[in-house]
Specification:
Order of helices and strands of chain A: HHHHHHHHHH
Largest interface: A-B, 44 and 42 residues
Oligomer: homodimer
Number of helices of chain A: 10
Largest sheet of chain A: none
Distance between the termini of chain A: 61 Å
Structural class of chain A: mainly alpha
Strand content of chain A: under 5%
Shape of chain A: globular
Number of strands of chain A: 0
């Protein structure tokens, strides 16, 4: 018998019930306005059980869009690098993650997010309230400038992903990781600390 | 009686027949491998009639994806600027075009291109063989470096479009044109002429 990967102990039906309730709630109200408690009520389970199965609202959201990457851990990895390496480490972590087996789930989720305005809204809220906010924190952006700088970084990162993985534009699609790091790292560096006005 | 805009003289059924044949041919064989002659054969019309209705293979392609922007004219507009202004003029032309009424057709076509792998392929070929090749030419990129530099420019441009128009990420989505030009123009400038290795 082969053990299923990633399955936590407990009743698989309960896990699926929670996922379905979460999907409906995120789709109806967006990421930011949906609470674990609301999802627990809709699924008729104890909120503690959702924490037991999924750990956090972010991880539950990633499970609803079938993404098997711990984005918060990746951001912490970037944040652990030296200040002057942040731009290059961000691009290196991004590309190696999307190039990996787990990246397939990211490509599928991103394609869905762009195709459907409702999913776009969920993903936008998730990006803004979790990914960009965390990135701004680990990169020590000044609060007044953080949204604009994080947004500019997002514009380069999202474009790299769209061009390399969704459109498969050559030569970007088959460029080695370190060539991309060398070419795009300084762009991130400038958006982090350079003159942008 | 109100004249229909953009309708050329001739039988509207013929125009629609050509468009349907073009859509099928581009979807089956991609943009690059499809010729006006093949489309003319499939539609059982003279190739000269396709030129009469649509002007060129590029314009026919844009009509099949319902884009009402003359992309070649926009690229020529960018190419007419002074060398040192190219980065900023590219971003200004891009954002003002996508912000305009005609931009709605671009957003719809781009969303479709990213959602469906078959359409992605057509759009990839169109971007590579027309848009990026033309940009490389008007920007006088050295042939050996042109694909990589054009690809990097594409990664920033595609990301700006995806973040501002498809994901509507704030503050990018409502940032004034000139703020985006000031922030992103120098990135394009570096991809055009800077050290990228």
């Amino acid at each position: 018998m082969v053990a299923r990967q990633g399955r936590r102990p407990g009743n698989p039906d309960t896990r699926e019930t929670i996922l379905q309730a979460a999907r409906s709630a995120f789709a109806a109200n967006g990421f930011a306005s949906t609470s674990i408690r609301q999802i627990a009520n809709a699924a008729a389970v104890d909120p503690a059980l959702i924490h037991h199965y999924f750990g956090s609202k972010e991880k539950l959201f990633l499970a609803t869009v079938r993404v098997g990457v711990d984005i918060r851990a990746k951001i912490a990895e970037v944040g652990a690098s030296r200040r002057e390496d942040l731009g290059r480490v961000l691009i290196r972590t991004l590309i190696t993650t999307w190039d990996s087996d787990a990246g397939i789930s990211l490509v599928a989720a991103f394609r869905a997010a762009l195709a459907d305005p409702m999913t776009s809204r969920m993903v936008r809220e998730f990006l803004t309230s979790v990914v960009l906010a965390e990135l701004a924190a680990v990169m020590h952006l000044a609060p007044g400038e953080a949204p604009q700088r994080a947004g500019l970084i997002a514009s380069q990162v999202v474009g790299l992903i769209t061009a390399r993985y969704l459109l498969a534009l050559e030569p970007l699609a088959s460029m080695p990781v370190e060539s991309i790091v060398a070419a795009v790292g300084p762009t991130i560096e400038r958006y982090l600390t350079g003159d942008i006005s």
